[in-house]
Amino acid sequence: MSFRTTTYVEDVSPGRGALPPRAWYPSSDAKSLSLNGSWSFRLSATADAEDDSFATEGYDATDWASVTVPGHWVLQGHGSPIYTNHLYPFPVDPPHVPTDNPTGDHLRRFDLPEDWPADGEATIRFDGVESCARVWLNGTELGEFKGSRLPHEFAVGHLLRPGGNVLAVRVHQWSAGSYLEDQDQWWLPGIFRDVTLLHRPTGAVGDFFVHASYDHVTGEGTLLVDSEVAGRVTVPELGLDLATGEPVAVPVEPWTAETPRLYDGVLATKGEQVPLRIGFRTVVLEDGLIKVNGKAVLFKGVNRHEWHPENGRALDLATMREDVLLMKRHNLNAVRTSHYPPHPAFLDLCDELGLWVIDECDLETHGFTEQGWRDNPVDDDRWTPALLDRAALMVERDKNHPSVIFWSLGNEAGTGRGLTAMAEWIHGRDPDRLVHYEGDLGCRDTDVYSRMYAFHDEVEQIGRGLDGGTHKRRELPFILCEYAHAMGNGPGGLADYQELFERYDRLQGGFVWEWIDHGIRHPELGYAYGGDFGEELHDGNFVCDGLVFPDRTPSPGLVEYKKVIEPVRFEGDGADGTVRLVNRYDFADLSGLALEWAYQVDGETVEAGTLAMPRPAPGSSVDLKLPEPPADGRGGEAQWTVRAVLAEDTAWAPRGHEVAWAQLPVTERVKPTVVPAAAPVSGERIVRLGPGTFDARTGALLRVGGVEVSGPRLDVWRAPTDNDDGAEWQTDLRYGLLWRKFGLHRMQHRLDGVESGTDALTVRTRVAPAAWEIGLDTVYRWTTDGDRLRLSVSVTPQGDWTVPLPRLGVRFALARADAVRWFGGGPGEAYPDSKSASRLGRWDATVDGLQTPYVRPQENGARADVRWVELGGLRIEGDPEFWFTARRWTTEQLEAARHLTDLTPGDRVWVNLDHGQHGIGSQSCGPGPLPQYFLRAEPAEFSFVFSEVR
Ligand code: IPT
User: Where are the transmembrane segments (predicted)?
Assistant: First the structure.
């Protein structure tokens, strides 16, 4: 029977042979057999290199390799992953694909379990195969399919036998379907989701649609289960026992992402019982707003790709659960499943733990933008059946999830009739949900005006309704389906977006791009990114732009986001001890939370306690009086820290988990004073001033007491962040590049004079780059009170500065330092527009622990608002507060590194004490820092007091 037809690979049709789509459920009382595990595997270089005799009975595959299913063969030693953002890694000539088309033949032998019923039917379901597969069972062809992140089910009952079944699957990396799957991610072929044999008893459940709505006026839920096969629906907790197709109204507690109330039920037909998890909720577009259960909601969302650093898009349940738990613990309430339907179990978790979901179809044709969208499949009727197939596979699979409130047509696919056809079909099939698509500026097919990476000022215009647009669009609410590009250090500017979302009703929030860095664990590189596998075309570390690192450690960006979107806000005046507590939930009261306070002086808690948590309704506030400050609590810099923590264990975090906090200053900091009390004493080649020893010729500090110090001197350079560098298509000024152009990474220090005065040592310099007339006149003035050494730096810019400074401060090296203590912002890093989560306190760390491991090394690890820091035997106090950074390599080494493994500790610790840092923004795919976070080259004065810690 061998023949070599591969025409289906380039066929625009969705495939043939599969059963009609239906609702997905994790289990029922019908038997099933997982076919996951080790499969025999053979890789060929082209689609037709081998005939299909491997699918025939009795084929001997003993010399084949093996792969784990679910999995991607390129992550299991066969071939390599490729990363491109939107460029197709093959010539654009739809529907053709390259002759070089890695093709993985997969074989799986299985026996039926002893108790497998003799009667009934059976199906085999593939939950995800990239990108095109042809399937045989026991030598008989079942069909072929495309649609990588969608389920495909085949009837197999007539072919099954008790033992020695052989399932053969031929998977092609490239197919016509690849043109529809141009998402910004690794190209990863393989059978990457579960394969399951399902028994279908006689009279089994077919497709079914649970309609569970909630009337917020009457408090009643209405349940109607439409079922292809008639049966009964029982919900014991509600005392319900009714026929399918029959509606019933009962008082219920509604489902929301904040209060994910589910009722367990059963759908029973003659042959099968399927567990139901029913959430009653009603989603409407009303008064130009997205309302659930009668209330407008605010999305505090994130875009989630499926990612695991070893297994790619083959995710296990524990990893999916970890994602949802991490989201809940960081105050997120929404997820867009960018850019394809996730593993279906992920949606079960969203139902159970509570997240609003935009379920997005597996569709992106972004690469056509390079040819002005010519030949775009979504505007070509030949492709419309494939698009409708994808829409149906998604909607039918996921329609019973209360968490799903939006269907999204796809991402970055331009516009076209095919999209309209999808939207029409979806609206018709499921009128009880809304339709999202970002690419259609006129909102012809959608129920929400959605954009990505719009700048703050434009978002504000939209909020005020001044953005114009089509008549239809003007009536619609607005979301940012992507914003705050979390690539590398950042995003900056989150708080400023949130402030807009809260100010204007029309703005219903957004979804940060994106959840996780798609770094691939690599033996030499730590985590690999685009280009690390020798791809001829790639987009580098643009694939590492998540709020969590590849191993799911939260990055500072996630900690920042958690703070910015916290559902309880405290506003007040620490000095008079009043706090206004604002409930920023959309639905929940604050009964799940407890209120804790601490009174702190100079960062140390003097007294702490709890207060009764008031119960303001969602959206309202209550004024509270804090206790009397402790009598001995005056003197230093005092503040209140108030915290809202979980009062009890929840499904997603234990009791005591912090949800929100604030600090209210009571008394101001006392700045360090050093009254000059000694004159510099010149010796041979050195000058002494109090505890300081200086080089007489250069004026450089050599020692403070017994601590060796090199420097300090002026430093303006930071290893540019991805957001400093910006994206190549950015029309805004890309300062990372301009800073290099103007030589800020190679500033020269000219010594103009070292002057010993009566009470000071003064060093005059000009710090400037070769080739340019811009410069910074810098004067270091050293004084001492005998014990401590004060450095005052005064900086006066010269020339025409057209760029801001990356940083402004001093850098020096210490011979050794490990433990670090400080009083200031912490515990994590912060930058001017990403410092909401930095809290004032006493913190301890090590130099290594101060580093933030961005997958591509770049500026990181600054601590904000530092009053004093101790390390390496030195104590440094700042006037004013400063930014502190310490690392075991120089900025130049940090900048040169491509991967974390390029960074090796040197024999010194480099310390930066900064008066200012430039903001971070999110220009790697969005706006740069807002003007208020610019570090402009302006006259500046700042000082540090050094002493030896004994
Ligand atoms: C946008 C894409 O939708 C998303 O998949 C990702 O590529 C993101 O950018 C950047 O990481 S599209 C872009 C042109 C704004």
Answer: none
**Residue 737 belongs to domain with CATH number:** 2.70.98.10
Question: Domain boundary residue among 528, 563, 598?
Answer: 563
Query: Ligand 1 atom 6: the closest Cα is on which residue?
Result: 184
The helix (run of H) or strand (run of E) holding residue 808 is: strand 807-814
425 contacts: CB under 8 Å, gap ≥ 6? 388, 391, 392
Instruction: Compute the distance from residue 519 Cα to the ligand 1 centre, in Å.
Output: 17
Q: Quick one: 84 and 187 in the same domain?
A: yes
Domain CATH code at residue 589: 2.60.40.10
Tens-digit pLDDT profile for residues 251-301: 999 999 999 999 999 999 999 999 999 999 999 999 999 999 999 999 999
Residue 431 belongs to a domain with what CATH number?
A: 3.20.20.80
Q: Examine the domain organization and report whether 34 and 88 are in the same domain.
A: yes
Nearest protein Cα to ligand 1, atom 13 = 925
Please report whether residue 773 resides in a domain: yes
Rounded CA-CA distance 710/685 in Å is 16
Which of 507, 529, 563 represents a domain boundary (last residue)?
563
In this prediction the pTM is 0.97
Distance 184 CA to ligand 1 centre (A): 7
Atom of ligand 1 nearest to the CA of 452: 15
Cβ–ligand 1 distance for 430 under 6 Å, the answer no
**671 belongs to a structural domain:** no
Query: Does residue 56 surpass a pLDDT of 60?
Result: yes
Query: Cα-atom radius of gyration of the chain, to the nearest Å?
Result: 31
Number of structural domains (the chain) is 5
CA 514 to ligand 1: nearest atom: 11
Co-location of 827 and 928 in the same domain: yes
Q: Kindly give the distance from the C-alpha atom of residue 491 to the centroid of ligand 1, in angstroms, as a whole number.
A: 15
Distance (Å) from CA 928 to ligand 1 centroid: 16
Q: Distance (Å, rounded) from C-alpha 29 to C-alpha 201?
A: 10
Strands 507-512 and 299-303: parallel
- Count other C-beta atoms under 10 Å from residue 13's C-beta: 16
How far, in Å, from the CA of 873 to the mean position of ligand 1? 47
In short, whether 583's Cβ falls inside 6 Å of ligand 1 is: no
Return the pLDDT at 886: 98
Domain that holds residue 392: 292-563
CATH number of residue 80's parent domain: 2.60.120.260
> Over 70: is that where the pLDDT of 3 sits?
no
Rounded CA-CA distance 922/931 in Å is: 13
Q: Residue 2: pLDDT above 50?
A: no
Residues that are catalytic: 412, 482
- How close is the Cα of 891 to the center of ligand 1, in Å? 30
User: Does ligand 1 come within 6 angstroms of the Cβ of 539?
Assistant: no
Closest ligand 1 atom number to CA of residue 338 = 5
pLDDT at 1: 38
| Contact 184 CB / ligand 1 (< 6 Å) | yes
- From ligand 1's centre to the CA of 411, what distance in Å? 9
Q: Whose CA is nearest to atom 7 of ligand 1?
A: 184
Structure tokens at 384: 């419309």
Q: Tell me whether residue 846 is in a domain.
A: yes
pLDDT at 633: 61
Domain assignment present for residue 258? The answer is yes
Decide whether any atom of ligand 1 lies within 6 Å of the 903 Cβ: no
Are residues 154 and 16 part of one domain?
Answer: yes
437 Cβ closer than 6 Å to some ligand 1 atom: no
Nearest ligand 1 atom to the CA of 412 is 3
Residues 397, 304, single domain; the answer is: yes
The gap from C-alpha 113 to its chain's centroid, in whole angstroms, comes to 42
As a whole number of angstroms, the distance between CA 532 and CA 524 comes to 10
Q: Where are the alpha helices (DSSP H) in 15-161?
A: none
Q: Which helix (H) or strand (E) holds 323?
A: helix 317-329
Q: Are residues 533 and 610 in the same domain?
A: no
Determine if ligand 1 sits within 6 Å of the CB of residue 925.
Answer: yes
Mean pLDDT of the chain: 97
Q: Please check the confidence at residue 457 and state whether its pLDDT lies above 70.
A: yes
On whether both 273 and 230 belong to a single domain, the answer is: yes
pLDDT tens string 851-874: 999 999 999 999 999 999 999 999
Same domain, 552 and 588: no
Q: What is the pLDDT of residues 74-110, one digit of tens each?
A: 999 999 999 999 999 999 999 999 999 999 999 999 9
487 Cα nearest atom in ligand 1: 11
